[in-house]
Amino acid sequence: MSVMRMDLADTGSPEGLVSLILKHEPNFRVPVPIEELALQLEIEEIAELETEGFEGGLITDSNRSCGIILVKRGVNQTRRRFTIGHELGHFLIANHVPDEDGRFLCSRQDLQTLSAKEGDRRAKMEVEANRFSSLILMPPPKLRECFRKQPSPSLEHVFQLAEEFQVSKEAMARAYADYHPESLAFIIVKDGKVGRIYHNRKRFPFITASRSKPVPQGSLFYRTNLRVGTPSEINERLPDLWIDVPRGQRAPTLSEQVCLQKNGYALIMLWHEECDEEQEEREDMTARDRWRAQQEKYQKG
Ligand SMILES: [Zn+2]
C-alpha cells in the first residue's frame, strides 16, 4: 500500500475519503485489508476494548497525531472489520470530535445508525463513520464489477458477496440495494415482524408495510416449505402487499425472495420492475435483440 494520511488531508466526507483512497490504491483487493489500511493510515495499534457495553473505540488526541482503535473482544470477523472501518472513519474525518477528551466510544446502536436528526451532531458523526466503513469495505466500483458479471439480483448473490467482501449479510444487503442497477429493497424480519428496511430511496417506491407489524399476508414468508439458510425461489407477488399502487395506473411487477435465518430472523428481497412504455416496447423485441441490448448496457455500464 502506498496511500499516505497526508494524501487525504482536507477531505471531510466519507465519500471523498474513500474515493481518494481508491485513487491511490487502484489495485485494492477484496476482501479489503482493513487492518492493514488502518495501520498504513497512522493507526498505531488495533487493541481489545475493555469497556463493557461498547462495540468499538478510538483513542486519539485533539489534533489526531496518533490513534489506537479498540474492538470488543470475541466478536466475529465481519463485525470486527466493520467496527475497525467505523473507528478509522472517526479518525480520518477531520471534524469528528469525541465526547470525552481524546476518546470515542461507540455502542452497538451507534454502529447501526444510518440517519440523524437535524442538529444531532453526535448521531451525524456515527452516520458518517458507518458510511465510511460501508464504502471502504464494499467499494462501489468493486460492487459494480460484480453486478456486471452477474446482473440478475438474488439473495444467493447477496450471501455470496457478503462472503467475498467479508461483511455481514445485512451490511451487504444495504449496499446491494444502494448500488445494484435494479430497483431493490431488503426487509429484515424478526419473529415474523417487519424490522429494518433498506432500499434505494431514489428508485424504489415507498414501502407501506409498517415497522414492528407482522409481515403482510400473502408474502412468500408464509410458505410452509421454507428451510433455514436456503433462499426460496424468486416469485411475483401482488405489488400492493408492499407498496402503494395508484388507481388507474398499470401495476409494476413486484417479486419476492425469502430466506429464513437463525434465531427467528429472515431476510426478504423485493424486486420492483416498472411497467413503462419503454418496457412495453421492449416486449416487441425478439429475445436476441433483448440479449444484445443487455450486453450493450453492461459494456457501457
Ligand atoms: Zn462511532
From TrEMBL:
This is ImmA/IrrE family metallo-endopeptidase. Residues 279-301 are annotated as: Disordered. Residues 66-174 form the IrrE N-terminal-like domain. It comes from the Bacteria. InterPro entries: IrrE_HExxH, Rad_response_metalloprotease. Residues 284-301 have a biased composition (Basic and acidic residues). Pfam families: Peptidase_M78. The lineage of its organism: Bacteria, Pseudomonadati, Pseudomonadota, Alphaproteobacteria, Hyphomicrobiales. It comes from Rhizobium chutanense.
